[in-house]
Design a protein that fits this description.
The protein is mostly helical and 184 residues long. The chain has six helices and no strands.
Length: 184
């Protein structure tokens, strides 16, 4: 069964991926420290309301329509929890990020469209690297994890925009070999 919202309505997929994309972009850019004066803590309100509440509600709507909105419900609950947790010790934060990574891994292997799998795969990688960075107290790994989160957010944003604007979501395939002519 497909745990991505691509099985649901286009509007649910667009809103869900936009919410996830914006949250990941804010979280990731704050984590990288690339913008002077912007830190991860500046993404807390956005993660609370957009990544948490809005994503959770989109997931519930997708479930109500018979779609597989489980992924959005789970991600919304995790973002909400991250935003209100206060983050505790470094090891507690690392454990939470590791659990977040496991949910993203489940969503990656559950299937769905290619952009959804790339988005969830990058989210898994970002949270895994950030978890290791929290356990190791490594600022270099934290920046790398932030950049991977930015990449995941960019893919989520593109997936939402592509669905709304009818942009391509797959690359065209070329013929198998020399001298092969496609019919059609």
């Amino acid at each position: 069964m497909d745990n991505d919202v691509s099985a649901g309505s286009v509007s649910t997929a667009v809103v869900g991926r936009l919410a996830l994309g914006v949250t990941l972009l804010a979280f990731g850019l704050g984590t990288t420290g690339v913008i002077d004066g912007v830190a991860t803590s500046d993404a807390v309100s956005l993660a609370h309301y957009v990544g948490g509440v809005a994503l959770f509600l989109v997931g519930l709507l997708a479930l109500r329509d018979g779609a597989a909105g489980v992924g959005y419900v789970a991600l919304g609950a995790l973002w909400f929890t991250w935003a209100v947790s206060g983050h505790g010790s470094a090891h507690a934060a690392g454990l939470f990020l590791l659990l977040f990574a496991l949910v993203a891994l489940t969503l990656t292997v559950a299937g769905g469209d290619a952009l959804g799998q790339v988005m969830h795969g990058l989210l898994f990688l970002a949270m895994l690297v950030l978890a290791v960075a929290a356990f190791a107290d490594s600022s270099a790994l934290t920046k790398i994890g932030g950049w991977v989160a930015v990449a995941s957010g960019a893919v989520a944003w593109y997936a939402a925009t592509a669905a709304a604007a009818h942009w391509p979501t797959v690359l065209p395939r070329r013929a198998a070999g020399r001298g092969v002519t496609a019919t059609g």
